[in-house]
Amino acid sequence: MNHYQKRKQAVALRYQSDTDVSPKVVGKGKGLVADEIIAKAKEHNIPIQEDPSLVEMLGQLELNQSIPPELYEVVAEIFSFIYRIDKNG
Q: Keywords on this record (predicted)?
């Protein structure tokens, strides 16, 4: 195993159109915490999108912080992906 291998990271987003202006970071972590976030998402059938560079950017935000406007387009693509999965599922 490579000693320089990065630990797994995860960021959980929530968007409630009736109360949120934009998606918010509601969970984030590395290593075992990331594993827990992913396990909880799977347990509740919440879609998971793997994008290490986006996780890196979102991981710099604080909990309950709305995503910045410069990430709207990328995050909108993820929510579109989730919507398609949900619609076809």
A: Cell projection, Cilium, Flagellum
Report how far residue 48's alpha carbon sits from residue 13's, in angstroms, rounded to the nearest whole number: 10
pTM score: 0.79
For residue 23, the one-letter residue type is: P
CATH code: domain 9-88 is: 3.40.1690.10
Report d(CA 8, CA 32) in Å as an integer. 8
Residue spans per domain, the chain: 9-88
CB atoms within 10 A of CB 38: 17
Cβ-count burial of 62 within 10 angstroms (0-12 exposed, 13-18 middle, 19+ buried)?
exposed
Q: 3-class SS at 5?
A: coil
- The span from the CA of 89 to the CA of 45, in Å, is 11
**Residues of the chain with pLDDT > 90: what percent?**
52
